[in-house]
Please model this.
Amino acid sequence: GNSVTQMEGPVTLSEEAFLTINCTYTATGYPSLFWYVQYPGEGLQLLLKATKADDKGSNKGFEATYRKETTSFHLEKGSVQVSDSAVYFCALSARGQNFVFGPGTRLSVLP
Amino acid sequence: NAGVTQTPKFRVLKTGQSMTLLCAQDMNHEYMYWYRQDPGMGLRLIHYSVGEGTTAKGEVPDGYNVSRLKKQNFLLGLESAAPSQTSVYFCASRLDSTVWGEAFFGQGTRLTVV
Model:
């Protein structure tokens, strides 16, 4: 079946550091890929998405590129802020299937 | 602009009590989902619905029932609560089954069973 693997963390960074959260997937066909973010005490909200190979999703300084050859969708940000502290979920959506979520990666950014 | 609304936000139950969690969406979405989130376990799908009057089991359905009598509402019931059901519950909705469509989440319900 379809699956998503991501680094579980926690990840602790200093403000203005570079962030990478790895995500790899297994799926048949041509899934869409998503990153969701969950701030403390809140529900998940979409951060960015990509619907086909080589697409780059971006939002709020975060980027991720859909790499079919490596089945990856790594999340990056050049300079993190304290306000980016949250849990990040990688997810995929494939035809006829429900969403599949990774286990989440907790990010803490220290001032 | 309400989106997905869950009630209640917090609840404490005694073992054996019953309760219903309500999820309402105002986006005319066909698909609705109930997840539970536990530390270290990520999100696990309990039940889902692909349209009014339909329901289906997810990966952890035991101990829960659901109903979708109206398109905008998706109810999650616990008939006899157990401490293992202590969790944070999230409802989500999605327009349809298109691969690129995002899911919208509610704020969550934190349930404690003592």
Observations:
- Residues 6 and 23 of chain B are 5 Å apart (CA to CA).
